[in-house]
Amino acid sequence: MKYAFIRAHQAEFGVRAMCRVLRVHFSGFYAWLKEPLSRRAQDDARQTELIRQAWCDSGKVYGYRKLADDLRDQGEQVSENRVARLAGIAGIMAQVGYKRRPGRYGGKPAVVASNTLDR
C-alpha cells in the first residue's frame, strides 16, 4: 500500500524522502517495482483459480474440505485452512441444503382400520 502511494506520487516528491516519511526502505520500493505481487500472492491467485475450477466442476456443491482433496489429487500441496481462506475471499461456498417439496408418499397406501367400536 505504501509502495503504491510512493509510485503514484513519484513525480511530485522524491522517492527517498517519501520512503523516509513512510518509514520504508527505498530498496524495498525498487524491489517492489520489479515484482509488485509477492510469491505468496501469486500462488494464492493461481490456487484460487484452481479452487474455482474444481468448485465449478463439482456443480458448485463442494465445500473447502472436498475442494482441498481435489487439489491434492491434482498434485497441489495445499492445506484445508488455506483452501478455506481462499474460498472465503473468492465467495465460494458449499451447497448447504436444498428445498424439499412436500408431496405424495410414494410408498404403500394408508391402511384404514375397521370401525369395530362404532365411533
UniProtKB/TrEMBL annotation:
Pfam hit, one: HTH_21
InterPro entries xref list: HTH-like_dom (IPR025948), Transposase_IS3/IS150/IS904 (IPR050900)
Residue ranges of every copy of the HTH-like domain listed in the record: 43-100
PANTHER family membership: TRANSPOSASE INSF FOR INSERTION SEQUENCE IS3B-RELATED, TRANSPOSASE INSO FOR INSERTION SEQUENCE ELEMENT IS911B-RELATED
Protein name listed in UniProt: IS3 family transposase
Organism: Pseudothioclava arenosa
Top-level taxonomy: Bacteria, Pseudomonadati, Pseudomonadota, Alphaproteobacteria, Rhodobacterales
